[in-house]
User: Fold TIR domain-containing protein from Sphingomonas edaphi.
Amino acid sequence: MGATLAQVFISYARSEEKVARRVAAKLKEADFDVWWDADLPAHRSYSEVIEKHLKDAPAVVVLWSKSAAKSQWVRAEADYARSEGKLVQAQLDAQLPPMPFNQIQCANLAGWRGSDRHPGWSKLRDSVAALVAGEDLPASPTEPSAKWWQVRRYQWIGAGAVLLLLAAAWLLPAWMTSNGGERPVVAVLPFESLDERDSSLVLGIWEDTRNALSRNPQLLVLGPNTSEELAKKDTKAVRNAADYVVRANVRSVGNRIRVSANLVRTKDDAQVWSERFDRKLDDVFALQGEIARDIEGRIRGRLAKKGGIMPENIATTGEVYALYSDARAKIRKRQLHLFEEAERQLEQVVEKDPNFAPGWATLAVVRKMAGLAPSSGRPEQLARRAITLAPNLAAGHAALGFTLESGPTAQAALRKALAIDPNDIEAMNWLANSLDRSKTDERLQLYSRIVELEPLWWPAILNKLGLLTEKGDRAAAQAELQRVERIGDNSIAALIKIHLATRSGDLSSAVNIGLAEYARSAGFQQSENRNLMNLMLWEPLMQLGYFAEADQIFPPPPPSRAYIPLIRENDPRALDIVEARMKPRQFWEFGPLPIVLARVYLLNGQGPRLAQRYRDVAKSPAEFEQVVGPGRLPDIAPSVALALKGAGDPDQAAALLTLAESRLPKATLGASEKIQLARIFAVQGRTEEAMSLLSDAIKDGWLPPYMPVHTDIALDPPLAELKVDPRFQKLRQQILGHLEKERAELGTINLPKAAIS
Assistant:
């Protein structure tokens, strides 16, 4: 092609070379200058030439096939063309283009043999001609209009029980869609070798780092020759050439290497970032790539658009963002059966792009939310990794606060997330959940703000209702129900009614409301609505002892099916199964499992085994709190303290209970907090205080939820410390009598097919 710039760039998978050659030939016949990699000069760098022609060509033709969809090169080139508004797509086989490209117009060249009259070829040729002439392509008919989104928003969310799926095809990240704004210019100056013997290694690390940064479409990275020349110039020359400079020096000592790197903003010589990397010198080429990847990761988030506040601001490939977006949508639905699938997708995200900070943040959230026992990486560690990569990412700070659950550190992280992104509804919800009852007004303001932004997001609605119920504000709770009914979402309205009935102790009505809604709404044939309703019905069914029906609508995850029935029977075989499958730390971190299994240990005289599991992870109550989290400590501590006492360690038990008590509010206690304190006081021997709290909670309408407190409170080891008191037996019979009455009113349950998972 000589010095002539190509008008058309062709991207394809190697297996489709024959078709690519035919497309190139036909475009040349139509008087277009075409470049494809068959024109690659033998003396030039492959990536350098491709990048130049990709940027310069006004039209980029992507030939999609099953092989092309798997090609990182094809996806990357399609990403770039899409972001620059010059993408022309053609489909070569029966497989649609991958997300998000399946939402963009695509010519069908399946079966094309070179005919000018083929409709797919005519469409492709006309699109190329329009782009080369400087015209915009018409919008894809599959893309939803803004008007549709605004008018149908509430109906769409409600039909999916507040489905918040931000499909990658409809809400592409800003770096893929925006043509505006100048990209920061980065000069990666040659890295300095502090020992001449390391010069080859240092050169390799420098080249790999520059190449890694060059793949980021948000940055303009100066070439090696320019960077070498700038290293010889003064500060003014560097400032004129680049917005940021990356510098590093390398030193090897024995079998280890140390790289000190920094990022400097040239306009004011401010150091944006600096870090030191220490590595073992094993595989030299792997080491070069690893250090280059680490440096790129620290820089990407710091130089992202808008400071890297939102996930869509941070660059990655279309494939990775599509996986991330889909996983995030699954998590928003709050359906347990989707959590493991979302976790697998996010593990692919961080494997494919280890420097994509939003992937680490969201992986932390799903592991914490589902109580998943990870093979590697605790949720808190994953959240901190996200913040290391992108300090301004709101989702990273929100994830850290969520994984820490409660306490000053968690709340500080969540407040920082909201300072960065004031409309982050997840961060608002988690912050409100982390606050104690002394901050009831702030909690209510946060929940109310969420439902202003997302009027049908059921987690916030139910949290708000729970708070109003605790305050005894039935009028406000009814107003919330009426608000949802006015919007017209019967599914969410039914959930609210179930919630209110359950909280008032009318369990039979709660179940009947759900069963009636199944019968009324054909929409519950859809798995999303059904699973949400099943989740709400599961609690009253468990409280009433309908275990088989509860398992039908909400089956336990497959790994737990071997021991959950045994736990319900307080069968000690459950202990052997769990201990064989879970290491101590995994056990203590695994959601509600340690809370309910502690009961089985103690009722079967296996307290010393439980005490040993405690000692396996902690030498002190403070260390134990680091494992289970301050939010769960008040529920777990009483049973563990009983185990420690039985194992001959009363001092450790006393210290653990004191710490747990300190994590609960001192005033304005709700029914749940009263029960938590009653269990602590009962184990401490503070019988009068414990009985007073237990009695008050039951007067407030509290019923044992089965988890963490068994519906027969005499089977809860901490509360069973009070069973010699006649008042305890009277309260126990009051609870059991109420549950028996509710069960009699409900009778035999015939679950509709729509309810069965």
